Amino acid sequence: MRELTYLEPDDTTEAVAAVSGDPEAAYLGGGTNLVDHLKLGLATPSTLVDVTGLPMDTVEVHTSGAEPVMRIGANVRNSDLAAHPVLRAHLPVVSRALLAGASGQIRNQATTGGNLLQRTRCVYFQDTTTPCNKREPGSGCSALQGYGRYNAVLGASDACVATHPSDLAVALAAVDAVVLVQGVDGERRVPFADLHRLPGDEPERDTTLAHGELVTGVELTASPASRTSTYAKVRDRASYAFALVSVAGALDLDEDTVRDVRIAWGGIAHKPWRATVAEDALRGKRLTEDAVREAVEAELADASTTDQSAYKLPMVRNTTAHTLLTLAGQAGDPR
Amino acid sequence: MTATPITARSMGTSLDRQDGREKVTGHATYAVEHPVDDVLQVWMVQAPVARGTVRRVDAGAALAHPGVVRVLDHESAPRMPADDDRDLEYSVLQDDRIRFRGQVVALVLAESSEAAREGARLVRVDYAEEPHAVTMDDAEAYAPESGVNGGHETDYADGDLDAAIHDSAVVVEQTYTTPHEFNSPMEPHGATALWDGAMLTMWDSTQAVHAMRSTFAPLLGLGEEQVRVLAPYVGGGFGSKGGPKAPDVAAALAALAVEGRPVRLATTRQQMFSLAGYRTQTVSHVRLGADADGRLRGVGHEAISQTSGFKEFAEQTASAARMLYAAEARSSTHRVVPLDVSVPSWMRAPGEMPGMFAHEVAMDELAVAAGIDPVELRVRNEPDVDPETGKPFNDRRLVECLRKGGERFGWTGRTGPTRATDGDWWVGTGVAASTYPTLWMPGNTCRIEVLDGGRYAVSIGAVDIGQGARTVLTQISADALGVDPSAVDLAVADSDLPVATVAGGSAGTGSWGTAIVQTAQQLRADHGADPEVGVHTTSTTEEYPDMEAHALHSFGAVYAEVRVHRWTGELRVPRLHGTFSVGRVINPVTGRSQLLGGLVMGLSGALFEEGWRDPRYGHVVTQDLASYHVAAHADVKDVQAFWLDEEDPLATPYGGRGIGEIGIVGTAAAIANAAYDATGIRVRDLPLTADRFLG
């Protein structure tokens, strides 16, 4: 048995101090990912700092401004958040993304903060008998020439072609969430787009957080687009499978013309991929299937695929078009 | 005496599952849950190379780890008796050769599962690695010398196939493939084992307690009386537990190494992918030639599969093509490619499942090419006698299954792809035939003793692997004795009980049930209708079905409705109906469950299951249930199983035939054919994933 220290801190300051002061320490949230990693030998922390007892388990709704603002505690369970009436009314894309993930039992256990920090499901990352730069920097990337069905097609590097597995993160990227983070030097607000990073030559780093920084919550501000939003997850199995490709879409139309649009993709890159090029191409234009396809094409200009991942390009084109046309009331039934 | 047909009283009724309460309340103790004191946990260390030798095992760090008690390697593990013919799959830790990646190279015994696992991580093994051959292109295919699995001939030819194809008005020649598929029972393989110095007792997750004993005794240098195997509850097997696998052997070796202390070995899900057998990938070249009216002139099926280089397993992929339809010329062959991989093995309907996918998709292609309704095409090719043997069939009712199943499903006939749409979905329907041979195994022994109060103790070493054996054997016993099922005390799943054959080949119930009927009839013949308490009779089966007189098979028709999302390519199966001719169904609840299980497993194979072997490393890297998908509840919609109301006294004295496997057989083809009907896209390679249907 590999021994470790288990701590239940009294407050976030104590938690942050405990992890920041020990390079081998890790936070424990719902444990749906980390506990697997302990068993598989992927993670070998000296200390687990259990943050699930900390008072970050509520959803506050502030309605004083022009739009409702939700402050979601990092410990709010995925199933509770998905059912929140304000979220469902003002940011349905987030609720739907949550419900598209994992299984009922896992959603009951998994936390908001933990969901964002889950690690890739690349089969080589999870297999300690094969090289993986993310698990063991410098050992090589097995996925580049290996099993590639789930590989990234945008923003990958020679060091890593893994994708981020979270559904929630894709929705949060689309609605410009702000991540609330506490470190030893105090709190900071991280725009969602800046939380996750591309692999570059440091694929072992999933996020821009410093060791010991604790996600305490997520702040969401509703918008006209977020009220007309949805999440489409394409997968082989009808449930309980990671996305081949997923699309978080939000749309605000002035008649046929796009006033605001948000597009984020899952299953495409090392981080939730906010398709800003496509969004810019669509703003101010009439929303048609051709316009969406043209915009998506521009976003995919730098895509790189193999025989095994080439399907993702037509899949993300089609799914993005279907998602936006559905939001515009121009396409058939939601799936 | 030989058994004679019996009258149904309990049979045909839905007697409650006899072990249902224990299972749903969690009181059923599976192999690794058997309560023992002072147990040592065993963890397997696996080779990370596909071919080579073990140079050195350094167990120092592992042994220094708190809780680790012993480390066994190929030098320190208990020795098996010298045997040049020893089955190398069972030859665990007996030499330094690495034959496949994932092979067991050491065992760590520890006071806790956690300590054993950490100990396994700390064992340092040096390997001399050699180049490996792990893909179908890496080695030459050969023809298995002693036939293929299931007792079929390697090659079969009747008539001149080339001439028949040449003379045909309509020809289909295509190649179909199926990937590696893995048995994924809810209970992974595992065992609790105890060697007390004289007796090895194993509580094992197995489909065959006596086969385990008869394999283990000579393997371990013990007498049969020194080995006892019990399998009180088994959480599914599907063939993977039909014989010993390396984890069973490892548990026995560990027990022998620590006399007096019980050991426990639980296989992880990941380890199942290298140590529990699998359905090998198959490649089928199918040639069908027919007259303009669809009457087949020639049927050709050349099948290639993969085997391990050190133990041959040849999937009988082309066997069904020999007997399914009438044609003047039929040829089918099997070839295997020997590789440095783990040993393929039985997985629900080995041969029939991948072979009938190929054959029944080809028939659908023929129907389209000839412009004939696919049901009508099959009806037109119905043979009068078994094309393979020339014998009359016991009771061939494929046409009735097709007709009745089609009526229930709402099949209206067609001559080309429908390509119907419903909103964003393309919608189609498909059909395929199913068949499975009726196997029967002699040598089953049953003992019946008369108890107080009109009760009977019925004993036979059968195993209930979830298929409902405890329940249906109780019903067969009751009807054979002419008593209420509540008067039967059935004992199974212990090698100390009379000898029984495997729960496999859809032959368990038939083979065991015949022994029960025969023994009950012998008891009545010897002791009359009102025997004294304490008298007992034991008898062993030698024969029942007349295999010389009849070709015994079961048949079925599977109908599927498929929806393919025209934007995303996702494929869903809202309806899947199977109609089967299987003789008498002993218990409608457990029987339906078996057939539904087969249909669902067929759906799962059609849509999801694919083990991806990395050619560089040699192992299957999709080795957990997140990356190797099996059907989830959301995938299982309107799945229904029906059966013809019939009995078949030619097959068994209680009139039933095996039902464990036929449900899976035609299912993947029916779904692939429905996907073609919906989209016009013909997929010849399983699984039918979303990327196949993207425009």
UniProtKB/TrEMBL annotation, chain A:
The keyword Oxidoreductase applies. Gene3D superfamilies: 3.30.465.10, CO dehydrogenase flavoprotein, C-terminal domain, Uridine Diphospho-n-acetylenolpyruvylglucosamine Reductase, domain 2. Signal peptide: none annotated. Residues 1-225 form the FAD-binding PCMH-type domain. InterPro entries: CO_DH_flav_C, CO_DH_flav_C_dom_sf, Diverse_Substr_Oxidored, FAD-bd_PCMH, FAD-bd_PCMH-like_sf, FAD-bd_PCMH_sub1, FAD-bd_PCMH_sub2, Mopterin_DH_FAD-bd. Keywords: Oxidoreductase. The keyword Acetylation does not apply. One of its GO terms (molecular function) is FAD binding. This is FAD-binding molybdopterin dehydrogenase.
TrEMBL record, chain B:
The keyword Oxidoreductase applies. Residues 1-15 have a biased composition (Polar residues). Keywords: Molybdenum, Oxidoreductase. The keyword Nucleus does not apply. It holds the Pfam family MoCoBD_1. GO terms for molecular function: iron ion binding; oxidoreductase activity. Residues 25-131 form the Aldehyde oxidase/xanthine dehydrogenase a/b hammerhead domain. Residues 1-21 are annotated as: Disordered. This is Xanthine dehydrogenase.
